[in-house]
């Protein structure tokens, strides 16, 4: 699986995780809920936990991400030894690789506006 930008909310209570998931389904802001409720340091960044290869995450999180259909906005709650996670993954579009052979003389001599 390709690296993803991962946002998450870590909670100690499964009950609270399910309650926040309902709030998210009703339109609450993931970032606001992460800032207010998450016990993870990523709460300072509105839940942004960085870029991760799912295969390098704890097994429960990795499995949840591998089962993700790419459509659901939030995954969870997913239980781990740390607590209960609500995950908001964002797939990263592959970046095109530009080689010297792909660059034409016209592209070099004519700057784009």
TrEMBL record:
Pfam families per record: Rotamase (PF00639)
Q: Does the keyword Nucleus apply?
A: no
| Keywords tagged on the record | Isomerase, Rotamase
As one GO molecular function, the record gives:
peptidyl-prolyl cis-trans isomerase activity
InterPro entries (UniProt xref)? PPIase_dom_sf, PPIase_PpiC
Give residue ranges for domain PpiC: 1-91
Protein name stated in the entry: PpiC domain-containing protein
């Amino acid at each position: 699986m390709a690296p993803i930008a991962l946002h998450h909310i870590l909670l100690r209570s499964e009950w609270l995780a399910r309650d926040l998931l309902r709030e998210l389904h009703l339109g609450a802001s993931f970032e606001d809920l992460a800032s207010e409720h998450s016990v993870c340091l990523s709460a300072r960044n509105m839940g942004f936990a960085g870029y991760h290869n799912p295969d390098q995450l704890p097994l429960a999180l990795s499995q949840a991400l591998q089962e993700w259909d790419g459509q659901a906005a939030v995954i969870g709650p997913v239980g781990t030894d740390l607590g209960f996670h609500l995950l908001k993954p964002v797939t990263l579009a592959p970046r095109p690789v530009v080689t010297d052979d792909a660059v034409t003389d016209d592209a070099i001599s004519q700057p784009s506006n």
